[in-house]
Each structure stands twice: as C-alpha cells, then as structure tokens.
Amino acid sequence: MANRFLSTLAFFLLAGDVLAGSPSVPETQLDVALVIAVDVSSSMESEEQGIQREGFIDAFRSSLVHEAVENGPHGRIAVTYVEWSGVKDQRVIVPWTVIDSPEKARSFSNQLAYQPIRQAGMTSISGIIDHSRKLFEQLGGAPVRRVIDISGDGPNNDGRHVVYARDEAVADGIIINGLPIMFKRASGSTELEDLDLYFKECVIGGVGSFVLPLHDPEQFAMVVRTKIMREIAGIDDKRSLIVPTQLGSMNCITGERRRQEDLLSQEKKP
Q: With the CA atoms of 223, 224, 226 and 229 taken in that order, what torsion angle do they form, in degrees rounded to the nearest 10?
C-alpha cells in the first residue's frame, strides 16, 4: 500500500511540474513551439507503438537535445505530445510544457513515460494538422516558430483531404515536418510503399520543412533525436517546401481511395 501511495504521489508531482510550465501566456519569448503528433491508428502494430514512444522518451533525456535547447536564441521552447487517429480522435498526452533546462526536459520525458499506450482506428493526418493549429492558439504570439512534427505509418484516409489542411496551416506560418514509419511488416510490405514520397508531396510544408523516413526500428531513437534537434535549431533553407499537387508524382488521395476500395470489397463478400 505504501509503495502504491508513493508511486501515485510521484505521478502527480510530475504532472504538476508539467502543468505548471504550461504557458497560456509565456513570460518570455520561445524559440519554437513544437507539437509532437504521434500516430496510434489501427495500422500501427503494438511493437511499432512501443518503439515510437520510447524514441521520444529517450530524445528528451538526451544531453544533445538539452544542448540544442540551451543554444537557441532564447534557450526556451514549448512542447506538447499528442496522439492521433481518426478525424475526431486527438488526445493530448502531455500538455504544453516550457523546457528551458535539462531538468524540465527530463520531467517532460518522465511524464510521457507514465502514460499508457493505446490503439485507435482511422488515419486522419488532416485532423491532427487542424487540431494542432488550435493548440498553437493557446500560446498566443509567443513562439518564433510553430512546428508540427507528424509521425505515422500510413496515408490520410479519414476527414478532409490532407493537402487542404496542410496548405491552410502553412499559409498561417506553421511548419509541418514528417517522420514516415516504413518498417517491413510480417507480410513483407509497408502500409504504403512510397510513404516517404507521400509525406514529402502531400503532408509537409513551410519554411525549411523536411521528411526523415524511418526504415529500421533500431534507429528510431537516433532518428527522433536528430529530428527534434533539427526542429529546435531550425535550418537555413528559407524556401517554403510545398510540392504543388498537380506537379507531384504522388496521388494525395491514395489513402481515401484505398479505404473506399476496402469498403466496396467488404460489401461484395457474402
């Protein structure tokens, strides 16, 4: 009973530390506000979900990430961790947390480690982009940069077309980066063979946006750490990287078409 009480107390102390840092109106400028948007749709296998969560936990415990925060112009960022699935399924797992020291980064990591992992249904990248825009509103005009960090293993198949959500967010000055998860499945295939190209042409956008595809589960922690460090620091490329839909080689409604085909095939079954 005593151990259980101590564990519960530790959890609420960590939660209080995170919530206390949640900046509705930050006192000082932020270098970046980062929404970590993590796919928990049904296509994500349990092993993928566990590796994904551990990758972000390890990243915020890394001294390299701590140094990236410290070396920013203000040495201060805000981060929130959100799980997403269908168009109406976005859940904030760790609320906006100001990180301006290694202790705050580790506190964010520990809070994330306490949360259970869940699995949901559809895949709405457009839904998480729209939801993230609302999350940024909680910060007012404080961040220098607003970044949505989207990881996922499949194309948009629920809600409005992803390019509409992407284009509106970018027009509002938001940067969208992508971490397509392209592990080989037991069946020998990925959710979408050209998922990295799909993210490049249909999902990411904004000044200096980028895609970091992930093919090897063992590299997840390293790739996530590299991605977050790059997002904290920003890069010198000032171009707004959007591939016009009519010029790209990828069909940006491939997920919606595949879902429709699946529904039709199910209807034909006796």
A: 170
Enter the pTM of the model: 0.83
Asked if residue 180 has pLDDT above 90, the reply is yes
Instruction: Using the predicted structure, report yes or no on whether residue 68 has a pLDDT greater than 90.
Output: yes
User: Which residue reads 């977050």 in tokens?
Assistant: 228
Q: Is 28 exposed, middle or buried (0-12, 13-18, 19+ CB in 10 A)?
A: exposed
Q: Give the model's pLDDT for residue 69.
A: 94
Residue-wise pLDDT for 188-216, tens only, equals: 444 578 899 999 999 999 999 999 998 88
For residue 51, pLDDT over 70 is answered with yes
CB neighbours (10 Å) of residue 44? 23
Alpha-carbon dihedral 144, 93, 115, 123, rounded to 10 degrees = -110
